[in-house]
Amino acid sequence: MNLANIMGINQPTTIYNTPTMSSTKKPQSSSGFKDVLEESVVDTFKRRHPDRARHVDQQVKAGRAVKERNGVADLSTEDMTMEEYQAYFYGLLETIPYDSTRVNDTSIITITERGWEQMRKDPDYESWILGYFVEDRAVRDPFFGWGNNDGAMITEHFGASIEEHHGEGFNKAAFKGNTDKDNDDDEEDWWIKRHKRMKKLMREQVERAMKKDAAGKAAAKEEYARQQYLSSQRQHSFLTSGTTSAADDAPKPNPEGIAASMAAAAYISTIDLFGGGMSGDVH
Asked: Cα dist. 49→41, 71, 167 in Å?
């Protein structure tokens, strides 16, 4: 059955996840059916967990009451095949009502093969499971009528002992949230991609800045060397002839070159001011 279809049913739904049994025959024992059971797993649990013994006794009592109401309190399962026993037990479960606020709940019940075998030969364990559902189905949904009446999806797993039982539940509205979550994921992906693009652009900008910086420093160094050469030429001309004609005849400093050097220095200062944070964020 499709999960979406199950969730749309406007009434409590119970799904029995019955395993394929390796044997459907009734158990055989040389000492008889009842003697197969040495100790109820209920008594074993209470001995191991004395702090929970009182609660377990209440659940067993509630389960026995279910069988009494259905007139099967003294019914023996000795002559039942496993299919017959499963049908008998499921029939008892169907008589346990849900609280009216649980109208939209869906329960999936799984009992292992060893669990079925234990229940069939252990009336107290069978009663405990029935009592568990009497207690569980009586719980009210505190959020019913608050505008979110989707109900809950519940899974219950039972093995061959009380310790093996575990259950989970979540609101069906979580399924409706998948679309919003997908949108959130798409938005998150967009931001991640945008961040990667920004890092790439910043890396490229830093590389370009480093190249320009190197070029600017080279140009400034070249201009400085040229100015130093011109200065030494003027000084030599003055000392040898007392005039600056040699210097005047020498190539004049190129104003454009000086301007380029100044621009390069300004650019380098700007990169130092703003580029540090950019390059520090690039990985």
From this structure: 12, 32, 19
Q: Kindly report, residue by residue over 14-31, the tens digit of the pLDDT.
A: 888 877 766 545 544 434
Q: Tokens for 269, please give them.
A: 């200062």
Determine contact, residues 137/99, Cβ cutoff 8 Å.
yes
Question: Is 137 within 8 Å of 96 (Cβ atoms)?
Answer: yes
Give the Cβ contact number of residue 130 at 10 Å: 24
Distance CA 85, CA 113 (A): 12
Q: Strand runs (DSSP E) across the chain, as ranges?
A: 13-17, 106-111, 152-158, 166-171
State pLDDT tens for residues 50-90.
999 999 999 999 999 999 999 999 999 988 999 999 999 99
Q: What are the angstrom distances between the C-alpha of 186 and each of 134, 191, 199?
A: 44, 9, 20
Closest CA relative to residue 27, chosen from 164, 165, 122, 93: 122
Alpha-carbon span 62 to 65, nearest angstrom: 5
Does the structure show a pLDDT above 90 at 173? Answer: no
Task: Say what the pTM is.
Answer: 0.57
Going from N- to C-terminal start, the domains of the chain cover 3-171, 180-280
Measure the CA–CA gap between 237 and 232, rounded to whole angstroms: 9
